[in-house]
Amino acid sequence: MTQATKINFASDNAAPVTPEILAALGDANMGSALGYGNDPLTGEVEEKLKSIFECDLMAFPVATGTAANVLGLSIMLPPYGAVYCHQLAHIEQDECGAPEFYSGGGKLALLAGDEGKLSADTLSRALSQAGAGVVHHAQPSAISVTQATECGTLYSPGEIGAISEIAKRHGLGLHMDGARFANAAAALDCTPADMTWRAGVDVLSFGATKNGAMAAEAVVFFDMEKAREFEFRRKRGGHLFSKMRYLSAQLNAYLTNDRWLKTATHANEMASGLAGEIFNIADAELVYPVEANIVFARLPAHVLVRLAASDVLYYPSGPAENREIRLVASWNTTADDIEKLMAVLR
Amino acid sequence: MTQATKINFASDNAAPVTPEILAALGDANMGSALGYGNDPLTGEVEEKLKSIFECDLMAFPVATGTAANVLGLSIMLPPYGAVYCHQLAHIEQDECGAPEFYSGGGKLALLAGDEGKLSADTLSRALSQAGAGVVHHAQPSAISVTQATECGTLYSPGEIGAISEIAKRHGLGLHMDGARFANAAAALDCTPADMTWRAGVDVLSFGATKNGAMAAEAVVFFDMEKAREFEFRRKRGGHLFSKMRYLSAQLNAYLTNDRWLKTATHANEMASGLAGEIFNIADAELVYPVEANIVFARLPAHVLVRLAASDVLYYPSGPAENREIRLVASWNTTADDIEKLMAVLR
Amino acid sequence: MTQATKINFASDNAAPVTPEILAALGDANMGSALGYGNDPLTGEVEEKLKSIFECDLMAFPVATGTAANVLGLSIMLPPYGAVYCHQLAHIEQDECGAPEFYSGGGKLALLAGDEGKLSADTLSRALSQAGAGVVHHAQPSAISVTQATECGTLYSPGEIGAISEIAKRHGLGLHMDGARFANAAAALDCTPADMTWRAGVDVLSFGATKNGAMAAEAVVFFDMEKAREFEFRRKRGGHLFSKMRYLSAQLNAYLTNDRWLKTATHANEMASGLAGEIFNIADAELVYPVEANIVFARLPAHVLVRLAASDVLYYPSGPAENREIRLVASWNTTADDIEKLMAVLR
Amino acid sequence: MTQATKINFASDNAAPVTPEILAALGDANMGSALGYGNDPLTGEVEEKLKSIFECDLMAFPVATGTAANVLGLSIMLPPYGAVYCHQLAHIEQDECGAPEFYSGGGKLALLAGDEGKLSADTLSRALSQAGAGVVHHAQPSAISVTQATECGTLYSPGEIGAISEIAKRHGLGLHMDGARFANAAAALDCTPADMTWRAGVDVLSFGATKNGAMAAEAVVFFDMEKAREFEFRRKRGGHLFSKMRYLSAQLNAYLTNDRWLKTATHANEMASGLAGEIFNIADAELVYPVEANIVFARLPAHVLVRLAASDVLYYPSGPAENREIRLVASWNTTADDIEKLMAVLR
Lengths: 346, 346, 346, 346
What we know:
The structure is a homotetramer. Helices cover about 40% and strands about 15% of the residues of chain A.
């Protein structure tokens, strides 16, 4: 596999699986287990999440982040409704219309916001003009925030709380796309509970794939009334695994001994270190504050030429004339990787 | 995991993963690989399938059988269309409306047929009265057959060819749900090509999960023109894996050294042996010919009482008064399992 | 218009509009009126229906019977749900998948039944095996009955009540397709209330088009809680009329002075007279009891040849070898029409 | 009907039906006519449109503007696709998600543009970054323009041609929402052909309701290949009228003797006259050029207070602090209406 010799800053989903999660798949591979979640491991995942989030909850494993997002949203979004989200949100930019599909034709209402974040003010203004109750307009139904954001920035619990207050005032559900929830949890000085249900989040896509799992996410319902029809929606989406134990084994290993926080902390530290190095390059700029495991940088044209010819995997961000790139650190990024990248950039 | 001590005849999806497939996941876990199928293993799967099916084709890994079926069907089924299938078909009975969902509201037109099989005659009669071209009626768009069927029986290449002829005459696509394709291929005295494209199949759900994989199927397009929009549909269904290499690794190992046929052959032999034993029980009857890895048996009431109290996992089939059960042999079913089951039944 | 010289027994929707309803359109055509139902006539329709049905209710005009049916059903049918109906139901046979479309992929579960009617027993048996609560199966969500049925027969209030009891026991909504509700109400010896909410109907498609209107139906909610999201669903279906007053004017005129019952009574009497005549033809048979305005007859082959060459408009029913035809009487059918038809048939 | 005494500038859909169209309904009300478009009038509509547009075409009557738009768009918009349109487009602002519904979950991609118009430049820039061919992104599939626009402005044939060139370069369909097509055709110095197919339009919603019909629009396909599946989509949307002759009668009368252009010319002249008067009010401003039958005006606060207390029906436009209102002239607007309105405004 020649890609293995490249230096990956393209995405945390280009990283491999942690040894502990791989081992857990082997451990789960003993004898028979009833399918579709009627196995002991699936129950354990829910118990571990209850303990981590310090509350009762319902949790459902799925294999992809898009599935987690759109199944969770579909509970809150009637086909004549709209989800309010940032215009850079993954559900808008990178899911090929999956939210519209799973809601039977609902809409995303897009809002601008600095550093990839929705502000309570912008939301409030948009909702006051949204035509709630007027039959011609898609009805405001939910708000979705991404934590950590697509720009690698973070919402504080206070910011989430302010958004949640608006959601409650307008009778909307609050969804959190936590594809990089671990990176946020590792970076913020608060508990997982503080970032979620205590701040008013109803449904969370709790990601693991980008942080060392093979293909595993959990849809977590803090508002358990909303979970009632989830299992039917998961099944009809084709997302109910027959051999569920192997999804659950990944999540179990991930949640054991704070491993999920440890791998995320490492990725965050690598990104932070990288950001410091880039900051010192002449004519280079950081596009957003580096608060999790992603660095957006604006680089001189000649540096971009060099980078494109190198062994480094990365993605440009936005139109070419902006000269911006995205660099993502993963659980397996090494200081040596950064050194090699910087050798190209300097 | 206490279920591991039970004797599994409930389903082949309650079986574990073969050691070779598990090992392949470890082998794939080296360094970084670009996501979404841009890894070397995914290309290899397609090459192996071309060799097995002796033709050019396009193949797309997904994780569940329902996803494979409904994504494949969605290509052939406009929202105002109907798929003709057996009334016992998995797509009708066990997918919670997924085909209707993925086609945007298409219909399944249900037909009866002996031993879980569609007959060319029944199809022909139904299609002649279907109102093709008449605006009030859902338009016949595709036929779906299951191979091996939900009743554990098989279509011969000739039977598939006769159905395909009808499909062609009416301008319909032909889909094969091959969740247990390996069991059929192992049992029939013909090549995979004979059972599929040579007999007129356009799209095949090529199953692996029930035959020893963790969660991996391939949607195989023999009619490659139909594949054009598949990738967009997979993505918007939430079925595009970021770390695709782990799906592909399973399929690669599965397709190597005829392993897929060996595990299926074993399961078939176990079912066949079991059927022979049940045939000899007084007052027991086999409901369908046992041609693959599934046994349907009608048992005396007092035997069912004993079975229900035993360590054997199984499912009743149909209403209780029929006294029918389904017993499925898996790649890991042993002669000892059968002996223990028979000790309860005798 | 040469068709005007033909004798119409093809359908009650090939008949023209009653003079009173046409005049009402002219009366409504004075000055401006706010659109989308914010006009006085629309409120009047609801008041008249309350009086006719002797209860509080909510009523929404739409222009087609398919729209009425599928919008009403969409309220009761989640995308993972199933409506139980007769296999000859209009929603199955003649709406090109509209119920599946409007519910976002729900299913119709088809049942057999004598004379086009569901029986409580058949329903009960089907529902007991439907897998309610089991994630693999579409969830039973509603029952739909057609009154008068597609076979021209009638449910008695007692029969509807027995079906409603089953609906309630299983937590399902009860929908009535009343495209020919007037014909049923005119024929049955009971009040509109007895046939609907008193017998447990939740939502009624109250038809007018087939009985002398131009294009007007009302979706009537006896269970008003279910009406909450109706208006959004009507709008997104494209069925909210801007100049609603012209829909409402039709319904108003229709409901005034028992006109709706008078035109239906006439059509029923014509059908009944026709049935008596056909009964006396040698080798002719009535296929179903003639209880409303439709006659199904099995005729000798040589008579069918004569009929096909005549000026009579009609439809064959089912495959040609059955020799069955459908004859529908309308509000404007005359004794002379029947005489001319009989002259061909005798 | 007390609203009849008010002075309507709220909407052209609050106006009544022209006497000629009303009379045509009576003329059509003779004898029986086969349903669903198999009547002579429906064919005549298509012939008249061919003559007006000087080309072969296919035309399908429907009753509402939303139905016309979303059925036409659904042909060009796969469920994983996106329609590029102005952020003020009716399909985005006023159809409660109908385009998403009818396309099975497609998206609208919103663009800004002066005076309610898309510019070729903006489109070109957006499409170059849309990710065509990339599986994560909704695929650009069509462009929709409104003529006359929601701001009461007009595209010149040249502007449409420039947009069409971009559509062709990117392989997209071009849809025109012509709810007020007559107002545009009456105002522009070119033929209907110049504004549509000669400039590259594939599908047109040809409106009549806002310009004096009761409830009638035609979906016109210049690209007839695209019409193949239209009738099935119309039926499953519940938009196929059984008594179609009454839709067609409206359109026939509308298209006879240039009536459609005469009523539109009148409305345009009334709006133009009104705009001249408003221009002369101190502190009043016209928000957009008045090119068709709509006037957007920014008025002093004390004038708005007076207006709100008057007998004039109108709608505010945008947030209250903008002090903007929309005034629409209709086929039946009189000089006296304008005088009365101006008496309030002055």
